[in-house]
Amino acid sequence: MSTQRAVRVREKFLPFAAPLVGQEELDGVMECVRSGWLTTGLKVQEFERAFSGYIGCRHALAVNSCTAALHLALEAIGVGEGDEVITSPMTFTATAAVIEHLKARPVFSDCEPDSLNLDPRAIERRITPRTKAILPVHFAGQACDMNAILEVAKRRGLKVIEDAAHAIPTRYQGRLVGTLGDITCFSFYATKNVTTGEGGMIATEDDGYAERVRLMHLHGMSRDAWKRYTEAGSWSYEVLAPGFKYNLSDVAAAIGIPQLKHCDDFHARRREIARKYHEAFAGRAEIQVPQVRDEASHAWHLYVIQLDLDALRIDRDAFIRELVQRKIGVSVHFIPLHIHPYYRDRYGYAPADFPNAFGAFQRIISLPIYAKMTDDDVEDVIAAVLDTTEANRR
Ligand SMILES: Cc1ncc(COP(=O)(O)O)c(C=O)c1O
């Protein structure tokens, strides 16, 4: 018999995600707007220096999204027509779309059922003579098993490009993500742990990749073309390659500089919320909480629970509807890419081709977790999840 709880419903809807921006970001933007220099310039350079200092990487190059970063990274390692790149189906569309943009083929490989990170043991079977790279995604902000992935890559002569959209700050065996693979790509989208509204960063130790990415992110124009309208610059430039328009603006960088300064504080708050969720849910048979591996740390960009559907009378979608009725915004990360019409039809995938990703998809719910949440917000989420669980327990 389930015990009856008093159902507590918030007055105001709690958004699934929201940035924490304050006076420093406002001051930075005002200073930038007043200066009259709105596009890429000194603020971007300052942001790049701060980022490489924070991560401890040799090169950091700011771009206008993680999608752009991934596109540039794959281009820099030479991915092109007919090549294959191995990645997880448990990711956002951008991870695979950029492979398609280069006329290469995204080859999905299943994730682990618990971490939802690329399973290193499954990768080897997907490698063919056309495979160029492995593209692991640090799902939710937990580091992938990078030793195993880097070992396969080294043995089979492949590059490793990391999708670290969720992974700041994430450590693997004590090292921050951003110093492990060949090139790492970060996101500063509005909901991310560090935001510039829209933005991204490329981190690499390799001088050659850094040079190629720097060239291609701004029209393929010679190095100092960005300052061609200043007294210090020159009107003359050369186009060395048909590059992209992926530069970050100084306005965005002005938001990113204070955001990065507070990254560890934001992370501490996310960790605290994750701890509260763990304490509230860990003993419940109906809810599987995220597990953090010994060698990995977690940025807690997402807090993803998995429902035990055998222990409940409702499915995941109905569970979400009940949370929304209780004014709690939630989401699902992700609808696996292989069941989306484009990938399903183009490559003939069936849902069961990646059983861990598809199985998890039917059970996962991402709960709100962000630095701006108050303790009351956290308690409301806990109450809503527990009420829904108790009301629908088998
Ligand atoms: C795993 C993953 N990769 C890439 C991206 C793309 O990031 P951006 O919006 O900065 O292009 C996202 C965005 O949500 C993501 O979740």
- Overall, the morphology is globular
CA gyration radius, whole angstroms: 22 Å
Number of helices: 13
The H-and-E topology, N to C, reads as HHEHEHEHEHEEEEEHHHEEHHHEH
Assembly type of the chains comes to single chain
Quick one: how many beta strands? 12
How far apart are the first and last residues' alpha carbons, in Å?
10 Å
How much strand?
A: 5-15%
Notable traits:
13 helices, 12 strands, three-stranded antiparallel sheet, 12% strand, seven-stranded mixed sheet, binds pyridoxal-5'-phosphate, alpha/beta, 394 residues
3D structure, described in words:
The chain has 394 residues and is of the alpha/beta class. The chain has helices at residues 23-35, 42-55, 66-76, 93-101, 120-123, 146-156, 207-216, 250-261, 263-281, 316-325, 341-347, 355-361, 375-391, and strands at residues 59-63, 84-87, 105-108, 131-135, 159-164, 171-172, 175-176, 183-187, 200-204, 287-288, 303-307, 364-367. Strands 1-9-8-5-4-2-3 form a 7-stranded mixed beta sheet, sandwiched between helices. It has a 3-stranded antiparallel beta sheet with strand order 10-11-12, with no helix packed on it. Strands 6-7 form a two-stranded antiparallel sheet. Helix 4 (93-101) links the parallel strand 2 and strand 3 (105-108). The chain is globular and about 70 Å long. Pyridoxal-5'-phosphate (PLP) binds at residues 65-67, 91-92, 94-95, 137, 163, 165-166, 187, 189, 200.
